[in-house]
Amino acid sequence: MAKQSPSIMSVFLLLLLLASTALDVTVNVNVNVVEVEGTKLFVFGDSYVDTGNFVHSESYKPPSGVTYPGTPAGRFCDGRVITDYVASFLKIESPTPFTFRNSSNMQNGINFAYGGTGVFNTSIDGPNVTVQIDSFQNLIQQNIYTKSDLQSSIALVNAAGNDYTNALKNGSIINLPHFMESLVDQISVNLKRIQSLGINKIAVNLLQPIGCLPSLNVISFRTSCIQPLNLIAIDHNKMLLQVVQELNKEIGKSVFVTLDLYNSFLSVIETLQKKRSENSTLINPLKPCCEGVNFEYECGSVDDQGSKKYSLCENPELSFFWDTVHPSQNGWEAVFSILQSSLVQLT
Ligand SMILES: *[C@@H]1O[C@H](CO)[C@@H](O)[C@H](O)[C@H]1NC(C)=O
Ligand SMILES: *[C@@H]1O[C@H](CO)[C@@H](O)[C@H](O)[C@H]1NC(C)=O
Ligand SMILES: *[C@@H]1O[C@H](CO)[C@@H](O)[C@H](O)[C@H]1NC(C)=O
Ligand SMILES: *[C@@H]1O[C@H](CO)[C@@H](O)[C@H](O)[C@H]1NC(C)=O
Ligand SMILES: *[C@@H]1O[C@H](CO)[C@@H](O)[C@H](O)[C@H]1NC(C)=O
User: In angstroms, what is the span from residue 338 Cα to ligand 4's centroid?
Assistant: First the structure.
């Protein structure tokens, strides 16, 4: 996800149109610990997992990277993102971004994810997930990874958020059930393809509660998440969970493991809200640490004279959201600690 500011009007329009039903999203925890030696990580999706592919974006401009590594380095965050935590969980270094691959830095896998992209085309001129998988396939055809490399590898997939925000902007959301079904169908095609290329463990992120994103919760003046938008995520996740279960059943083993960004985001946000109710100096977890001084600007914007057009919170390490779309390192770390019980299924 990157650069999302759907117009307020479209959100109101959506609120009027919506009549989704909610069902609980649960994730099965199925503990099964095995060796992780020689593991590589291959990453597909958007800015939530991109660690440096989108060179001409705010991810390479201040203040991104201010917490880690201390200077802008290609993450849509002040520091580490979920990819980095998953890599450290697997005891490997975060894989090299595809853009910077060379003959000697591909041993930990490759990160194909590209900020702003989606399952379908978005407004960003970057590779959608299909094209990212094409690049992976090309590397395999060049014999850069052997069959046994791939068998002990893990894939991480995070996409769909930008498809929804883009659809909010361009009107495709009007027929939400149709849009959701074609989106989940395409995700299913993508997941099957990654598996057929030889990967046996694939972590699939469920969609985050999009109604909590500061770009959208601004319509509640950052007092609460926008429930009708969260209901879209709930429905999407329900459909995606079904697809994943069917795929695992077809294959006869648990190749696909879901990581529940929906409930983990909500749980961390609620915990921070509770802390704040006891200490009002803490930052509202629905407010971004970094944002444009007004609607014309965003985190990282500078004017023609080069002066900053954004504000930065005092303590990024206390925030949940870094900017209006992305969690801070603090946010990701807290989310990761909740996801660990699911990640165990990958090892
Ligand atoms: C490959 O990239 C790494 C950084 O990821 C760099 O340190 C190294 O010098 C590069 N090697 C070659 C052979 O270009
Ligand atoms: C992904 O992008 C490619 C190339 O730009 C395009 O041909 C393809 O239709 C896109 N795939 C989807 C599912 O939108
Ligand atoms: C996606 O965008 C590419 C150009 O980036 C274009 O060639 C392709 O036709 C588009 N595909 C769809 C399905 O819109
Ligand atoms: C609207 O956005 C969706 C999701 O990004 C995309 O699949 C669709 O092709 C877009 N439609 C138009 C008319 O641009
Ligand atoms: C309240 O939070 C601030 C950080 O914003 C911290 O410095 C302070 O010690 C906290 N106060 C209490 C009573 O916990």
Answer: 33
Which string of b and e fits 259-297 if b means at least 16 CB within 10 Å?
A: bbbbbbbbebbeebeeeeeeeeeebbbbbbbbbbeeeeb
Cα distance between residue 332 and residue 275, in whole Å: 18
Tell me if 325 sits within 8 A of 214, measured CB to CB.
Answer: yes
Q: Is 104 a catalytic residue?
A: no
CA 46 to chain centre: 6
- Name the residue at shortest CA distance from atom 12 of ligand 4: 170
Residues 173-211 pLDDT 10s: 889 999 999 999 999 999 999 999 999 999 999 999 999
84-111: per-residue pLDDT in tens? 999 999 999 999 999 999 999 999 999 9
Active site residue 280: no
User: What is the SS3 assignment for 123?
Assistant: coil
> Terminal CA-to-CA distance of the chain, rounded, Å?
28
* Whole-number average pLDDT of the chain: 91
Q: Which residues contact 233 (CB under 8 A, 6 or more apart)?
A: 164, 206, 207, 208, 209, 210, 211, 262
DSSP 314-335: S-GGG-SBSSSSSB-HHHHHHH
Grouping H, G, I as helix, E, B as strand and the rest as coil, residue 305 is: coil
> How crowded is residue 187: how many other Cβ atoms within 10 Å of its Cβ?
22
Closest Cα partner for 120 from 81, 84, 173, 76? 173
Residues 276-285: contacts with CB within 8 Å, 24+ apart? 282/318, 283/313, 283/315, 283/318, 283/319, 284/222, 285/319, 285/320, 285/321
Residues in the chain, overall count? 347
Give distance in angstroms: CA of 115 to centre of ligand 2.
16
List, in order of start, the domains of the chain with CATH numbers: 6-20+32-267 (3.40.50.1110)
Catalytic position from the list 50, 323, 328, 342: 323
Is 178 assigned a catalytic role?
no
In terms of DSSP H, where are the helices of 144-260? 147-151, 161-170, 176-196, 214-217, 227-251
| pTM passes above 0.85 | yes
Residue nearest to atom 9 of ligand 4 (CA): 121
Q: Evaluate: CB of 279 within 6 angstroms of ligand 5.
A: yes
